[in-house]
Amino acid sequence: MKKMVGILICLTSLGLLFAAGTKEGGGARAERELHLFHFKVDQIEAWEEIAAEYAKVEPGVSLMVETVGGASDWNTALKTKFASGNGPDIFVVDGPALAKTFSEYLTDLSDQPWVPHVLESAKRPMMMDGRLVGMPFNLEGYGYIYNKKIFREAGITKVPTTVRELGAAAEKIQALGITPFGNGYSEWWVIGMHLMNIPFSAQPDPAGFVQALDGGTARLTDNEIFNSFKDTFDLTIKYGNENPLTTDHNAQVALFSTGKVAMIQQGNWKEGEIYAANPGMEIGLLPIPVNNEATVSGRVPVGVPFYWVVNKDSSLNEEAKKFLNWMVSSDTGRRYITDVFGYIPAFDNIRSDKLGGLSRDLMDFAGKGMTIPWSFTTWHDGMYNEFAEHTQMYVAGRVSYNEMLQRMQASWNKLAK
Q1: Would residue 352 count as lying in a domain?
Q2: Do residues 213 and 154 lie in contact, with contact meaning Cβ atoms separated by under 8 Å?
Q3: Looking at the DSSP assignment, which residues form a beta bridge with residue 147?
Q4: Which residues of 186-215 are buried (b: 16+ CB within 10 A; e: fewer)?
Q5: 360 vs 270: CA distance, rounded Å
Q6: For residue 368, which of 125, 39, 141, 146 has the smallest C-alpha distance?
């Protein structure tokens, strides 16, 4: 009996030593879970495929992908994770403002092999004290996605670039018995972030305007572009779908793909979803105007929608960096970026010849220098949601446009402190 107990103790000790060795990377590696957090709800299935593909090249690593987005507030969900001590290994930030919020968790990625290939304009927002702390995944742009067939049938021969032209197009489309706009105004990011970005980014100096708001030398209620933007906003409501405040982004795409509406405010990230629902659909992208000056209104916002960042407190910090490098350096990872997601790469060494109509239009606008920035990435934390609340109240008819601007200004003053 004593001999048997001794053998069991030895075997148990050897097992513990082996487990400890594999945990540190010695011998056969134990499976490790690499947690990744993002907000692209239209990519859930694709990320499941990516996780399976990565398991083939790194069998000891299990990629666990969590997606919080759409109508859900991913920003708050991410903060809650870190507050509870469950911060993911890899997560996303949508620009310098949120990067500043999570700055204590960000890993310096300056020495990574993909860094020399990042487009300079995409790299700049994620530089902190001379360090690159985020990896841009792609370039995106948005505006009004429009149905070219409906436009032809309505006799619209020129893509509208001013408020006046957009209104004339809406009248012609409505005369066909088709609703011009499909508004997904239940989504905070559609109305409070992307829509309100337009009058911010159409300023002569967008960055200077934000600084002037912070310094108290500019006000939304006094701004000419913000006041003229009322005409654009009102057009979408007048010629829009019923119940816009209960219509989400999925319902928007469904309305558009089935030809029930001619335009939706979305971006090239919806391209795959639209083509999946209606493969032969002819679609294009037109600007969201702010006034009747084509040189001001005829531009589209283009930027980096999010940056991958690595949690510096993660025990799998090196594995996280290894995965990000695989995504942009391997044939498989690149295929998902260009062919599956249909993205415009933010890297000079990743090419794609499979861009859809929206992405081609974006590249055309960019080639002509007709773009504006994503100013919302510089807004103060919490601004998206407050702007959404105020703009949704306007759509509901509960406040006037000027009252909406006053409420937005009050939110800015509060959050800028």
Answers
A1: no
A2: no
A3: 283
A4: bbbbbbbbbbbbbbbbbbeebeebbeebee
A5: 14
A6: 141
CA distance 358 to 346: 17
- The Cα–Cα gap between 222 and 226 comes to 8
Instruction: Express each pLDDT in 166-181 by its tens digit.
Output: 999 999 999 999 999 9
Q: pLDDT of 105-141, one tens digit each?
A: 999 999 999 999 998 878 888 999 999 999 998 888 9
- On the 0-12 / 13-18 / 19+ scale of CB atoms within 10 A, 271 is buried
How far, in Å, are 204, 263, 338, 363 from residue 151 at the CA level? 31, 10, 29, 22
Q: Is 127 helix (H, G, I), strand (E, B) or coil?
A: strand
- For residue 28, what are its two tokens? 């056969």
Query: From CA 320, how far away is CA 330, in angstroms rounded?
Result: 15
How far apart, in Å, are the Cα atoms of 266 and each of 199, 213, 282? 16, 27, 16
The pTM for the full model equals 0.75
244 with 285, same domain: the answer is yes
Q: What residue type is assigned to position 164 of the chain?
A: R
Could you give phi then psi for residue 204, rounded to 5 degrees? -55, -35
Domain tally, the chain: 2
Q: Which domain holds residue 226?
A: 141-303+364-415
DSSP label at 279?
A: T
